[in-house]
Write a structure and sequence with these properties.
16 helices; two-stranded antiparallel sheet; 4 strands; mainly alpha; two-stranded antiparallel ribbon; single chain
Length: 333
């Protein structure tokens, strides 16, 4: 506990002095990484906590971007209001889509949400009077009480603050009775319903919360970006965020954050190799699912406990969690 608190203090201190030490491009990367963190936390809620394999994250991210950007362009409210509006719209749409899609399970749910994501990208590309279509949308600078965020340096403290709020909110949800219900449904819907959990309502709430987190991340993006193109809101973005969650560790909040930071940096390094990005992400995702299905952080923790790589697998705790532990809010160590 003391070590975690020390690491948190050091991290906050490093983020506080970062604008004094680096250029605008580094601050842009820092802002973008925080957006990826919030995106990963949203996918963590629906896949890691509730166990629902949804592939529409990029669609709700785009809805948040366009909703916040269009509201800002039209009325120039304080950017907090436009961001919250984007998150609310994405969350409501997520709940409505969840009412239909979550009647399906497993691969059928994945295919249904994938289809919705592709349909939304088609809307972004062809609704030219609203989204700008293939020409993209130019967004006005975000404002707060007359102060315009015209650079990455201006947006940085607000993006960090909003990211911190999203992390705290995710922790609060995870530790609440709702989070326990999420995990109960993930482990066994039948057992959860036998204990009085409304499985369908819980899954819809998880889907809506995940969509709202994605919409919130989209609104955060509008505070430091001046242009958005629909090509950045396709299936590749969903796969990138899914890879972040899987590599960090499905069901691990820390893993989602570490995966977001790590693969956010990798995505920037691969910017000059766009034609190979999907191949690289797919290969990494496949290898982790085959050889490290519990994620990097869980493997490293097991390795430390075992005293070396040879005993890591034997020391690793079981992946499955009992329904009683899930319902009472207990988590695997």
């Amino acid at each position: 506990m003391r070590r975690n608190l020390l690491l948190l203090v050091l991290l906050v201190g490093a983020l506080a002095v970062l604008p004094l030490l680096v250029s605008g491009y580094i601050l842009y990367i820092a802002n973008l990484l925080m957006v990826f963190v919030v995106l990963s936390l949203g996918m963590h809620l629906v896949i890691g906590e509730a166990g629902q394999f949804a592939l529409s994250h990029a669609a709700f991210y785009g809805i948040g971007i366009y909703a916040a950007g269009l509201i800002n362009n039209a009325w120039h409210p304080p950017f907090v209001l436009s961001i919250l509006a984007g998150a609310l719209i994405a969350g409501i749409l997520g709940h409505l889509i969840g009412m239909v899609a979550l009647r399906m399970r497993d691969i059928y749910l994945a295919l249904a949400t994938f289809a919705f994501g592709e349909a939304m990208q088609w809307v972004f590309l062809n609704w030219e009077s609203v989204t700008g279509g293939p020409n993209g949308l130019r967004m006005s600078p975000a404002e707060i009480f007359g102060f315009q965020l015209v650079s990455d340096r201006h947006a940085y403290p607000f993006v960090m603050a909003m990211g911190a709020i999203a992390i705290v909110a995710t922790v609060a949800v995870s530790r609440s009775k709702l989070g326990s219900a999420f995990r109960a449904v993930r482990e066994s819907e039948v057992a959860a319903m036998a204990m009085g959990v409304d499985a369908q309502a819980v899954k819809r709430l998880a889907f809506a919360a995940s969509a709202a987190w994605a919409g919130f991340a989209g609104g955060m993006y509008t505070t430091f970006a001046s242009f958005i193109h629909p090509e950045n809101l396709g299936f590749q973005t969903t796969i990138l965020v899914l890879t972040m969650v899987v590599v960090g560790g499905i069901g691990s909040l820390r893993g989602a954050i570490v995966g977001a930071v790590g693969f956010g940096l990798i995505s920037e390094l691969l910017r000059q190799a766009l034609s190979y990005q999907e191949l690289i992400y797919g290969a990494i995702l496949m290898l982790f699912m085959m050889y490290l299905p519990r994620g990097l952080l869980s493997h490293l923790a097991s390795w430390r406990q075992a005293g070396g790589p040879g005993n890591a697998q034997a020391a690793a705790p079981g992946h499955e969690q009992s329904i009683e532990a899930a319902a009472s809010g207990r988590r695997n160590p």
